[in-house]
Every structure is written in C-alpha cells, then in structure tokens.
Amino acid sequence: MLQDTLQKLLGIYGPTGREGQVVSALRGMLEKNVDSMRVDTMGNLIVEKKGKPGGKTVLFSAHMDHIGLVVADVEETGYLRVTNVGGVSVDNMRARHVTFGNGVEGVVMCQPVRDETAGIRHLFVDIGAKDRAEALSMVSLGDVCVYAPDCIPLGKYRLASPAMDDRCACALLAELLLSKTETENTIVGVFSVQEEVGLRGAAAAAYQVDPDVGVGLDVTAWGDSPEVKLPSVRLGEGAAVKFMDNSMVATPSVRDALIAAAERAGVPYQREVLPFGGTDGGAIQHARAGIPAGTLSIPCRYVHSACEVIDMRDMESALAILREYVKEPILA
Predict the structure, then answer these.
(1) Distance CA 274, CA 299 (A)
(2) Total structural domains within the chain
(3) Is the Cβ–Cβ distance between 244 and 81 less than 8 Å?
(4) Strands of the 269-273 sheet, one edge to the other
(5) Is 159:6 a contact under the CB 8 Å cutoff?
(6) ∠246-46-41 over CA atoms, to 5°?
(7) pTM for the complete prediction?
(8) DSSP character for 163?
(9) Is residue 138 domain-shared with residue 247, that is, in the same domain?
C-alpha cells in the first residue's frame, strides 16, 4: 500500500506555488480517515487526527512542491526562456523532457556558450512552436514546467522518478495518518507548500498549529555512489535520523525519541549529518518562540534530478519508526 500511495503521488503535477493538484489527491485519500482537514492561506493542507485529552500535539510536515522552470520570456523564434524555481541544475536539466500544468510537453536544452560556464540563463525550452505567437498560444509567461513523470523500478526494492523529493515523504505521512495506530497524542499532518524556495509553507503552518513538538519528513542526500561519500547515508540501510543540516541542529530530545522509536520498532536506522540543505524541520524549530523539532529522512540518490532513487525498505523503516514515535514524541 505504501508503494501504491507513492506512485499515485509521483505522477501529479505540483511545482512550487502550484501544489493544488497534489492537495486534491491527498484530500481524496485521507478525508474519510481523519478528524479535520483544511487548506490555509499559503496553500498548505493541514490534517488532524485527534488523540486523547491531555495528550501532546505532534506536527509532521512533508512538502508537496518540486523544482521546475518558469517561463520568463518567449523569443520570436518560439523558444521559451526560463528561470529556476528552486534548486535547478543546468547539468540535470539539459536535454530533459518536461511538461506544463496544461499538458504541453517540451524539451529543455542549453545554448552553446564560449568562455563562460553555462548557467540557468542559457537554458531554453522547445515546445515545437514556430514563432512567439504560437508559443504564447500554448503557454503563458509565468507558467512552470517540471520533469515529465516517469517512475521506473530499479532492481527488487528501488524506484527512480522525478518528484521523489518530497512525494515519498508525502506518501509516508499519508500512510501514517491512514494507520490504525492508537495514541494519546494528536497528530497534525502538514503537507506543505513552497519548501523548495525557503521552507515557506511549513513556517506558516507551524505558527498556526503551535505544536508541542514537530518533525520534518524529507529526503536526504546519499553517500554510496562512486566518489560520493558524504553524508554517510546509504540506500537500503534504514531511514535516517537527522542530527543537523544548514537549517537546524535537531532538538536532542526529539532526535533521541526518534532513535528510541526505531529501536522499539526493531528496524534499521541511520544517523544523518548533512553539510548543506534544509528541511521543514528547520522551519518548525524556528517558529514562534521555538518548537522542539527534528527530521526523519529518506536516503535518496541524485536529488533534484529526473531520476531520484529511493529504496522502499527505507520507506518501510521510516513508517515503522513514525508509528512508534507518535506514542512517545519527546524524551525528557
């Protein structure tokens, strides 16, 4: 069921600022199994599963958005000039199939450059238009394209797809909310917006909810492919409990509670020190006067590419950890 949920979410268009289709899909999955559901001003989907009186409020946040390219201008020859929405790499985008929200397909290419390094300004998208007028009849300035959906299995346990960052964590959070796990604590699931441009949705959601404790759910980088050794995280060896990244130093009581939950569940886990990047956990920790917060990560190879790779055994490990964690979300 976890893999089925993941594959449904991977195929949905939802770049930063345009997450509405993902919201609709999640509402359909969850509405009969939770106590409340609303979309806030930012566009976050906030879902609540009530615990017992006197319990804590535990917020989990997984972001719905993924990176893309926004149309900034159209040349007279019909090519689209674009700029990045989130952390786009020229190397990863070059010669890639992309799609717009209205179904228009395109190919991203990079113009030849001399005496300089190719940058985002050198990218263009070919949508098959013969001139500017035809191109503008197909797309508009401000429209965003993303890697075309294409989920493929790799071996027995692994999947490669665009938007794995962070739809795999959205699937994880959805399955937690659908589970029958009994807990005294109230679970608030935030499916956040605009993470890829600065953790914006989670910051607003954490301020609104004002939880006792918060956990970001996201992918992390990998250290198990040729010449890539940091972070010290490997696919297939369990979900990763974050110690720090550029957005946060995890609150020790939350970090240790996640580790204790993994040990109670009897599943493998890894310790993550990420020397860059950030997650919704950082936004939660900074909200209001400060909220105890941590992050549980899914190891993911080739992040922000069209072929982000995860291992379903790590997903299952993460779900088992979360089911245990909600019973005791913070250690004294």
Answers:
(1) 11
(2) 2
(3) no
(4) 36-39, 45-49, 186-192, 57-63, 213-220, 293-299, 239-244, 269-273
(5) yes
(6) 85
(7) 0.96
(8) T
(9) no
Boundary-marking domain end, from 122, 146, 170:
146
195 given a catalytic annotation? yes
Q: Are 118 and 79 in contact (CB under 8 A)?
A: no
In this structure, the strands spanning 213-220 and 239-244 are unpaired
pLDDT at residue 183 in the model: 83
Q: Are residues 62 and 33 in the same domain?
A: yes
Q: CATH number, domain at 6? A: 3.40.630.10
332 inside domain = no
Q: Which of 19, 48, 175, 195 is catalytic?
A: 195
Q: Has residue 275 been placed in a domain? A: yes
**Residue 100 belongs to what domain range?**
68-146
Q: How far is CA 91 from the centre of its chain?
A: 21
Q: How many CB atoms lie within 10 A of CB 247?
A: 22
Mean pLDDT of the chain: 96
**pLDDT tens per residue across span 131-172:** 999 999 999 999 999 999 999 999 999 999 999 999 999 999
Task: Please tell me whether residues 95 and 131 are part of one structural domain.
Answer: yes
Q: Which amino acid is at 299?
A: P
The CA-CA-CA angle for residues 178, 182, 187, to 5°, reads 60
Residues 274, 247: Cα–Cα separation, whole Å = 10
Confidence of residue 330 (pLDDT cuts 50, 70, 90): confident
Contact by Cβ (8 Å): 234, 299: yes
Length of the chain: 332
- Is the alpha carbon torsion for 204, 208, 212, 218 positive or negative? negative
> Cα 112 to chain center, whole Å?
33
Q: What are the tens digits of pLDDT across the range 168-211?
A: 999 999 999 999 877 899 999 999 999 999 999 999 999 999 99
Please give the structure tokens belonging to residue 158. Answer: 């692994």
CATH number of the domain to which 93 belongs = 2.40.30.40
Residue 331 has pLDDT above 80, yes or no: no
Which tokens is 154 given?
A: 């790799």
**One-letter amino acid of 8:** K
Pairing outcome for strands 80-85 and 68-74: antiparallel
For residue 332, the model assigns a pLDDT of 63
